[in-house]
Specification:
The structure holds two protein chains of two kinds. Chain A is mainly beta. Chain A has a single domain, classed as Immunoglobulin-like, CATH 2.60.40. Chain A has two helices and ten strands. Chain A starts with a helix and ends with a strand. Helices cover 0% and strands 67% of the residues of chain B. Chain B has one domain. The chains are: A mainly beta, B mainly beta.
């Protein structure tokens, strides 16, 4: 009886192994500005690209959408293990079909609203079939400021000198 | 930073001019193409950022 059971287990294992069925697996990705809040619709969002690390094939791409999140939770309260800081904050949500554990590369480019200030942050992780990554999801940090410099296109020299005035708008990404 | 003929010729600190806004000026004497490079740096966080704008002096 024991041998039959072991044989059955082995056979079922082989049988299951033989089925290579893609399983939709949810993935939530958020972009968070370093020392600031989440990058969402207000900053034009963040471009998220999810690729199969082995092949480079793009598995999903899109923009983070939503609000910058809860200021108190993100900026003022100490974060605890398993504590959430992302409730209501911008995210990109997708579902990727994978039939085996797949190493993925996630690129996040932000902010879209001021493209000359775009910074890319990347990470890698294993996506396991059917094991959804939701809730906080994957939070990727974007360092830096958005700096927009303005000055007149032309300035004329008068009395052997020209004064160039300039102004800059500097905000957290 | 003020760039002219491929070289930084002057560095000017900006002054606060309102929420998220900073301003400054530089005086030059030669005609040509200039580039104003504004950078921001926060030593506490390591955050940096750069904005650039071109100016023609004639």
């Amino acid at each position: 009886m024991k041998k039959v059971l072991i044989a059955a287990m082995l056979m079922s294992g082989i049988f299951l192994y033989g089925i290579s069925e893609a399983v939709p697996t949810k993935l939530v990705i958020r972009a968070k500005s370093k020392d600031a809040k989440f990058i969402g619709t207000k900053m034009g969002g963040a471009i998220v690209t999810v690729k199969d690390s082995a092949t480079g094939k793009v598995l999903a791409e899109g923009l983070t959408e939503g609000s910058t999140g809860d200021t108190g939770k993100i900026m003022m309260q100490p974060k605890t293990r398993f504590g959430s800081i992302s409730s209501g904050a911008a995210k990109f949500e997708t579902s990727i079909n994978v039939d085996e554990p797949t190493l993925i590369t996630i690129d996040v480019d932000a902010p879209v609203a001021t493209k000359p200030n775009m910074i890319r942050s990347s990470t890698q992780m294993w996506l396991i079939p059917g094991k959804d990554i939701t809730g906080e999801g994957v939070i990727i940090e974007i360092p830096g400021f958005s700096v927009i410099a303005r000055a007149p296109e032309t300035v004329s020299i008068t009395n052997n000198k020209a004064v160039i005035p300039f102004q800059s708008q500097i905000v957290m990404i | 930073m003020v760039k002219y003929n491929g070289k930084i010729i002057n560095t000017v600190p900006l002054s606060f001019a309102g929420p998220s806004t900073f301003q400054g000026q530089t005086i030059v004497s030669a005609k040509g193409n200039y580039e104003i490079i504004v950078y921001a740096f926060d030593s506490q966080t390591g955050n940096t950022g750069v904005g650039k704008v071109k100016v023609v002096v004639n």
